[in-house]
């Protein structure tokens, strides 16, 4: 079944010049990029995006980080796109959870600076796509 998911290349990924490498992995997997742009995240968008983490101790730092520089935001399409993109990204902690071969496993060292984001469910994907790409049907 074709699905859509939302992805971000976070400020650390853009800053480190990993945008091309990450997009190449997305394309090599066979996922289609349905929408994408480089943008500076407004604090209000970041707060809505990460609302479920509002009570976590790292929330303030997370908002600072995600608004600290440009991100690449986009929508991926394909069969089981949500799980496929999460597999490509790897677990949240790039050292303890992300397998070698995944983006975080290959390029990350810290949980906050974990390079990419992916929606974790159909509900999150719908919510995040509506927030970041309200014009997308
Ligand atoms: P992401 O998949 O975008 O979802 C929430 C983000 O919060 C996560 O990636 C990390 O960037 C960040 N995060 C999660 N846990 C921690 C933590 N323990 N310390 C710092 N940042 C975290």
UniProtKB/TrEMBL annotation:
UniProt-recorded Gene Ontology molecular function terms: nucleoside diphosphate kinase activity
Physiological role: Major role in the synthesis of nucleoside triphosphates other than ATP. The ATP gamma phosphate is transferred to the NDP beta phosphate via a ping-pong mechanism, using a phosphorylated active-site intermediate.
InterPro entries: NDK-like_dom, NDK-like_dom_sf, Nucleoside_diP_kinase, Nucleoside_diP_kinase_AS
Similarity comment: Belongs to the NDK family.
Positions annotated as active site in the UniProt record: 117 (pros-phosphohistidine intermediate)
Subcellular location: Cytoplasm
Protein name, entry field: Nucleoside diphosphate kinase
Residue span(s) of domain Nucleoside diphosphate kinase-like: 2-136
Organism the protein comes from: Dietzia aurantiaca
Gene that encodes it: ndk
PANTHER family per the UniProt record, alphabetical: NUCLEOSIDE DIPHOSPHATE KINASE
């Amino acid at each position: 079944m074709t699905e859509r998911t939302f992805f971000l290349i976070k400020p650390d990924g853009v800053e480190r010049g990993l945008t091309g490498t990450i997009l190449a992995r997305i394309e090599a997997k066979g996922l289609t990029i349905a929408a994408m742009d480089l943008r500076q995240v407004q604090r209000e968008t970041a707060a809505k995006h990460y609302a479920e983490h509002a009570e976590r101790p790292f929330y303030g730092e997370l908002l600072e980080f995600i608004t600290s520089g440009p991100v690449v935001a986009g929508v991926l399409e394909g069969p089981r796109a949500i799980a496929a993109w999460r597999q490509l990204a790897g677990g949240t902690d790039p050292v303890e959870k992300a397998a070698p071969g995944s983006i975080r496993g290959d390029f990350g060292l810290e949980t906050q600076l974990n390079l990419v984001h992916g929606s974790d469910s159909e509900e999150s994907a719908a919510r995040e796509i509506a927030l970041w790409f309200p014009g997308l049907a």
